[in-house]
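Hi all, long-time lurker, first post. I run a small reading group and we've been trying to get comfortable going from sequence to structure in the token notation. Rather than ask abstract questions, I figured I'd post a concrete chain and ask someone more experienced to write out its structure so we can walk through it together at our next meeting. Sequence below, copied exactly:
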Amino acid sequence: MLCCNEVADRPVQVVASRFVLPLRSISDATVLLVPALIDGNDAGQLTAILDGLLLTGSRSHVAPSRYGSDVVAAPLDEQRDEVALSLAGRMIEAGKPVFGICRGMQEINVLFGGTLAADRDGAHLHGTPGDYASLFDHRHDVELVDGGRLAAGIGTRRLSVNSVHYQGVDRLGGGLSVEAVATDDGLIEAFSAQPCGADVLAVQWHPEWNVESCADGRAFFTMIGTSLRR
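-- Answer (accepted) --
Happy to help. Here is the structure in token form:
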């Protein structure tokens, strides 16, 4: 699992516990935290020891320069961008599974040559600054693609999901297959791929939020566990 760079009274590596816990309890995985530091990682060595990679959500955005845009998208975490794209690329080349949540989905789309767009009208991010929990209260429906991996794994064609993001998929990366779209505006909300035999699955929403009471969130982490042992 990849960390994020944040600054409190000093620079720190951060990953929210809510991402870690379902990987242990539902996916039955041993979780290793990978620092998002360019000088602190060797993608080749990490690929050799990891069975899979989860790119988590983050407060930061993927740098527009990564997908040929000059739109302002602060705050940025360009070390996270570099580590995420290089490590995910190596994992996929090695045939190992890569999963993405929110920012992680956007990183994977960029890795596959896709682009991102800003949520200019604010339709996908609600809540007031400082009121963290209320961010996840904003929900909308997504329709899962009939016959897709996500629909098969979750067992339904329609979900109500949280929506907490400023960036989203604009042009889908080559080789990625749409797994879900927002019913209100058609935004791509999930995609998958199997390049080099590697399972790639990513969602724009946060399945880890209140996962203990959310059947579709538990199904997502069950799919991760199954893929890790395939």
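A couple of things your group might point at:
The two ends are 19 Å apart (CA to CA).
Residues 58 and 138 are 17 Å apart (CA to CA).
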